[in-house]
Amino acid sequence: MVNAWPRQLIAHSQKLAGKLPGEVIEGFIRQHRLPAVFHRVVRDHYLPLALWLRERHRPGKTLIVGISGGQGTGKSTLTDFLQIVLTELGNHCCTLSLDDLYLTRAERQQLARGIHPLLLTRGVPGTHDVQLGIDTLNALCRAGAQSVIPLPRFDKSLDERVPRAAWPQHTGPVDIVLLEGWCLGAKPSLNPVFPLNALEQSEDASGTWRHFINRQLAGPYRDLFALPEVIVMLKAPSMESILEWRKLQEQKLREQTGGKGLQDRELLRFVQHYERITRNLIAEMPEWADCVFLLGEDHRIEAVRLRH
Fold first, then answer.
1. Mind listing the pLDDT tens digit for each residue in 199-215?
2. Distance between CA atoms of 45 and 226, rounded to whole angstroms?
3. How far lies 100's CA from each of 4, 65, 73, 83, 189, in Å?
4. What per-residue string of b and e applies to 149-159 under the rule 16 or more CB within 10 Å gives b?
5. Predicted confidence band at 1 (pLDDT cuts at 50, 70, 90)?
């Protein structure tokens, strides 16, 4: 692993920052309501990453880039920026989120009745339409000048998949696909037998739920997670940091919506659905991911590690 961007890449990104239309970066920062200091993040990390990914794209082929990280680490923000900049640089680029591959509510209700009630809650492996994701990525990789590829979408406010007729479409070839998701690249747990937290202890004492998730990671999800050629990880310093960041998010949401949003006790239970996999990712993914952004307790990128 190398703990820095190559000098030549930094120099190129600094030139690019001066050449890009001002509205590209400024508009992005306004749209995402980011602080002014985010210009430094763009200059020091986001632009170099965009150029680094372009170097890995081979003409005439589609590069699938996986962007992984725990809840609240900034995956969606990074993915949106990369799509904007890569498109500005002339690449045909599109994005897909694991969140848009969730099973319908009826399908999750069936899982909850037939396997375990916790599977009604979307997010963990086993609650996605894995084949839909594989088929969509394969279609994007085969896309030509006349291709029109529907991109799945899920409406979290309704807890339901958007009707297929309303899905956005990508027209033409694809150079780079950005696939983001909190559990992207996760591997089966070596020891899911013993409960890890209060949720597993009280609501999955038999281990049925967590063993089902483990089998999904060992089976269908392995095929999906094998498709990205490059993996970028946003690494939180700890599971505790992720919980604190989510608390701040929910607090802001309650302030903006007049009280709507999870209370701390509700949030703790919610996050425990994902704790086992998140802890495993934090512990082992930095050793094999192609690019790792190391986040500090203040949520800022402290360093980058590249695998060569």
1. 999 999 999 999 999 99
2. 26
3. 33, 16, 18, 17, 24
4. bebbbbeeeee
5. low
Instruction: Give the range among 186-195, 245-254, 289-298 with minimum mean pLDDT.
Output: 245-254
Q: Who has greater pLDDT, 98 or 245?
A: 98
Give strand pairing partners of 301.
Answer: 295
Closest CA relative to residue 46, chosen from 306, 305, 307, 301 = 301
Among candidate residues 3, 87, 71, the one with its CA nearest the CA of residue 234 = 71
Which tokens is 191 given? Answer: 């020891």
Q: Phi then psi for 61, rounded to 5 degrees?
A: -125, 160
- CA end-to-end span of the chain: 6
Tell me, what's the pLDDT at 275? 95
Whether residue 125 is predicted with pLDDT greater than 70 in this model: the reply is yes
Tokens 């509205």: give the residue. 23
**Which tokens go with 81?**
């920026």
Residues facing residue 291 across a β-bridge: 232, 306
Residues 2-33 as b/e (b if ≥16 CB within 10 A, e otherwise) read eeebeeebbebbeebeeebeeebbeebbeeee
H or E segment to which residue 99 belongs:
none
Whole-structure pTM value: 0.94
User: Among 15-24, 86-95, 146-155, which is the least confidently predicted range?
Assistant: 15-24
Using left for φ > 0, alpha for ψ between -120 and 50, and beta otherwise, residue 54 falls in alpha
Domains of the chain, each with CATH number or no CATH: 7-306 (3.40.50.300)
E strand map for 45-193:
63-69, 93-97, 148-150, 154-155, 160-161, 169-171, 176-181
CA distances from 287 to 54, 158, 228, 277, 282 (A): 23, 38, 17, 16, 10
- For 31-55, write each residue's pLDDT tens digit: 888 888 888 899 899 999 999 999 9
